[in-house]
Amino acid sequence: MKKLQKIVNPVWLVVIIIILVLIGGYYTTYFFKKDVIDQQTKQLSKEIDLLIPFVVQDNGLVLDEEKLDRSVGEHERLTVLDESGMILYDSSKESLAKGSRKNRPEVKQVLEEGKTEGVSIRDSQTVDEKLIYVAKSVYQDNQLIGVIRLSETYQGISQYVENFQRIVITIMVLLFVAILIMGYYIHRQSKKPIQFMLPILRQAIQNPEKKQKVIDAPGEWRELYQTVYELMEETNLLYYKQLKNEETLHFLFENLDIGIFILNDRLEITLANQTIEEMFQKKWTISPYDEWFTEPRLTELINQAVETKEAVQGEIRIEKPRTQDLKIVIRQLSIDNNEYVGIIYDVTEVRQIERVHEDFISNISHELKTPTTSIIGFSETLLAGAKDDPEASKEFLTIIEREAQRLMSLIQTIMMLLKTEKDIYIMDSFVVHPKLVIEDEIDRYRYKAFDKDISVIFESAVEEDLVIPNDSFQIIVKNLLENAIEYSEEHSKIFIYLTQQNNELTLKVEDTGIGISEEDQKRIFERFYRVSHSRQRNSGGSGLGLSLVKHYAEILGGRVKLVSELGEGTTVIVKINLDILSSNYENKRLKE
């Protein structure tokens, strides 16, 4: 029934009728015109057959122009041509009726195509009329000796035929108009319910939260309208709820810190949230997953989920655009379809904390164990009798004191690293000259530098006093200077530069020491990370110096940059924004 309704579509029915009317009119004219042409052609052909005995004699073509002129009708034109198409006789007696006519269509059909008869209709340039031409070949002893062509004015369709044609076309036009009127009436009647309900439906779409009022409808459509109102009320309510749910879902989808993507049954990425784009630094587009994801381990997990139809998970590490540790979960959306959802968790910080925790346990346990072991060992030696030897007693007590100081220094360093921003700003901010702070630290480490014959060269382009937390700045200078001395070779130099530009204070410390590899530079500022365990232990360092520098520089609104190469030394640059420090100082004074 539905197929029949599609076939009997009113629009297509009208189109078919129009096409049939045009085809009927065309073929009616065509057949009438063809009939007239056939009649004229037959008449001219018969006349040529009657003329051939008078033209052809034993010696070939014989042209008696007087007889030929008398045999040609009033509206006819006779032309006799030789076997090459040259005019031998033309009844029009026009000056243009000379030369060759072998290229005329009717002559060409006889001479070149080998037909016994050629026909064409065209405007004659010689007599300036539209003529119908009939040409017939003339043979003698099976040899072509010429062509006789007879033409007359093209009569076209007779008046009777034209009148009949007009009647047929008029009937078709009236039939076509009647069909159009009937189609329009049927269409208008079928549109009445739509015209009545359309404004109400539009109002419901524009204001889905408003309940539409029932309006009186014509009696024959009242039940239909009532049903539509009820359906519209339920549909609008569901639509409004679904819209709210979609907005909530879209907000959650785009604002989750978890990456989510959807694969369709062709394994194309059809949806991905902003977190996925940020993780892989790509704009999401609909594309096959193995073209968008370039990580082999990730595509392997997807293939495994597709093959097993079970949830799979694993971890990958990507290096570009930045190093990230990602946990991947791939599962099928439902058993009834072949769509899959991928969930990606960024566990970079978790894994980094785990590595930092491992480094901390390893390093700090060793650093605490070394001085503690020395203190316990020498104490036991003293208690075992060495205390009775004044020289040994003094030497062992000196070692115990040094190791105790080392243990205390380590504990203080850890405590400083654990201080928060709030703890730092509890310290008094006061006007101080950073040049004096640096010079004081150089004096404190003078003897340590002297022991390794290291020259410390300090240059300052800052002449004014600045508002700066003295304790925090002192900790930054102390750790940079201590590291530079600790890891510089003997008889080397350390350069310290202090400059100020655009209200930004820059501290630069250069050494010519052993340097830091590119791999270690990636983690050098992590808490408790040590570049080389053996080197740190031999030098007595805790591996916390640069962590403290970065920690306190960031709290002061600054940043740290490190440039180093193995065997070429290390340069650390600390930049501190003085505007931020001044603003914090003023706010603190106002609160007091």
UniProtKB/TrEMBL annotation:
- Per UniProt, the enzyme's principal EC class comes to transferase
* Annotated InterPro entries: BphY/WalK/GraS-like, HATPase_C_sf, HATPase_dom, His_kinase_dom, HisK_dim/P_dom, HisK_dim/P_sf, PAS, PAS-like_dom_sf
Q: Which UniProt keywords apply?
A: Kinase, Membrane, Phosphoprotein, Transferase, Transmembrane, Transmembrane helix, Two-component regulatory system
Tell me a GO biological process for this protein: cellular response to phosphate starvation
This entry's Enzyme Commission designation comes to 2.7.13.3
**Key word Phosphoprotein present:** yes
Transmembrane regions: 12-32, 167-186
Alphabetized GO MF terms: phosphoprotein phosphatase activity; phosphorelay sensor kinase activity
Q: Which PANTHER family does the protein's record reference? A: PHOSPHATE REGULON SENSOR PROTEIN PHOR
Full protein name: histidine kinase
